[in-house]
Design brief:
Helices cover 41% and strands 18% of the residues. The chain is an alpha/beta fold and 369 residues long. Helix 3 runs antiparallel to helix 4. Bound molecules: 5-S-methyl-1-O-phosphono-5-thio-D-ribulose. 5-S-methyl-1-O-phosphono-5-thio-D-ribulose binds next to helix 2 and strand 11. The site of 5-S-methyl-1-O-phosphono-5-thio-D-ribulose (MRU) has 17 residues, from helix 2 and strand 11.
């Protein structure tokens, strides 16, 4: 997607052929800074410190992390060390494990002298596959948006509500929740996005708003607790969110606050869709609410806010009384019964075990092996 009129991806192999470039998302929306990753440790830190974030991008970064590791030490011990370093970088996004499993399966059987080249080749494939998958999600989701246009007066604006950032910055390109939005915009459909600010880290306000703005998609940032009111007054045609992990039963783990939006949507008959690439499905987890561990992040994300002052400085200020305890659950799980449909690269699916299994039999087979 576009930044100042120029096409960008969130991660790429640099011109030197081996190092990896990535947009430093910690600096957005105030500064556009490109980071250079030159080692497996750099990739692990980028994931851990949220220089990159979003489930698909975490997977892509881990794949390049494995490639960087194979340059340094392609031995069996080096392969194991790289896997072990990266797998613990963040806990929720299952795409991290998916990408690392893919890399290990490609590299373990081959001669160590061939591993570096093979690792870059497989990582490049994973990155390209992410873009292709998101194009598929765009096409699946576009049909939903077109149906709404047909139902409303043609030519009227379609209002989509989204939570957190499941845009191109959270993937390699296009995004998941935003993919149908970008495609609809490209096709000339009038579309407007309600962007939840997404406390505590504000991925909506700082990332989704930034990328939609740069790509020219009309949007409005709203405090997190606004969605219910908008839905009650017919101001949301559909909600589309992303996800970090979908359990085999269709339960959806996503950024904290997603569940409340799904409840509000159900109460107001607003369709609530989740966009996901197939690597986000975790067939090893039967029941999302019971079995997906919820990442708890630093209390500083709740107590402190960073922003730009009127004279252009970046400053962090405390907004909670000294000594007040805080809790920072980073994700929640929306039960499948509140999800209207799962927008995937293989169509819009019912959020249940049978539909997921029928659409992605090869992923089930991989779990059973
Ligand atoms: O904690 P983050 O920023 O890594 O959160 C992950 C997300 O960006 C979201 O939960 C997102 O909506 C799903 S990933 C496409």
């Amino acid at each position: 997607m576009k930044v100042d009129g120029k096409h960008f991806r969130s991660i790429w192999r640099d011109g030197d052929g081996w190092s990896v470039g990535a947009i430093d998302q910690r600096r957005l929306p105030h500064e556009f800074v490109i980071a250079k990753l030159t080692s497996c440790e750099d990739a692990a830190v980028a994931i851990r410190d949220m220089l990159v974030r979003g489930a698909p991008l975490i997977g892509a970064t881990a794949a390049y992390g494995m490639a960087l590791a194979m340059r340094e030490d392609p031995s069996d011990a080096g392969l194991k060390r790289a896997f072990d370093t990266l797998i613990v970088a963040r806990p929720t996004a299952i795409n991290l494990k998916w990408a690392l499993d893919e890399m290990r399966a490609a590299l373990a059987p081959i001669d160590p002298v061939e591993r570096a080249a093979a690792a870059y080749a497989r990582a490049d494939e994973i990155v390209e596959q992410d873009v292709e998958i998101n194009r598929g999600i765009a096409a699946s989701g576009l049909a939903l948006i077109e149906a709404i246009v047909a139902r409303k007066k043609p030519g009227e604006t379609v209002n989509v509500l989204t939570h957190c950032n499941a845009g191109w910055l959270a993937t390699v390109d296009w995004g998941t929740a935003t993919a149908p939005i970008y495609l609809a915009h490209e096709r000339g459909i009038k579309i407007h996005v309600w962007v939840d600010e997404t406390r505590p880290r504000n991925q909506g306000a700082s990332l989704t708003a930034w990328e939609l703005g740069h790509h020219g998609v009309p949007h409005t940032v709203i405090p997190d607790n606004t969605g219910g009111h908008l839905m009650q007054h017919g101001m949301v045609d559909l909600a589309i969110v992303g996800t970090d992990r979908v359990a085999a039963n269709g339960d959806v783990c996503n950024k904290i606050g997603t569940y409340l939006k799904a409840l509000a949507a159900r109460d107001n008959d607003v369709p609530f869709y989740v966009a996901l690439p197939s690597p986000t499905i975790d067939f090893a987890v039967d029941d999302g609410i019971r079995d997906i561990p919820i990442e708890q992040r630093s209390g500083a994300e709740v107590t402190d806010m960073t922003g730009r002052t009127a004279d252009g400085r970046l400053e962090t200020v405390r907004i909670v009384p000294e000594g007040s305890p805080v809790a920072n659950y980073a994700f929640d799980v929306t039960p499948a019964r509140l999800v209207t449909g799962l927008i995937t690269e293989r169509g819009v699916l019912r959020p249940d075990r049978a539909s997921l299994a029928a659409a992605f039999p090869e992923r089930i087979a991989a779990v059973v092996e």
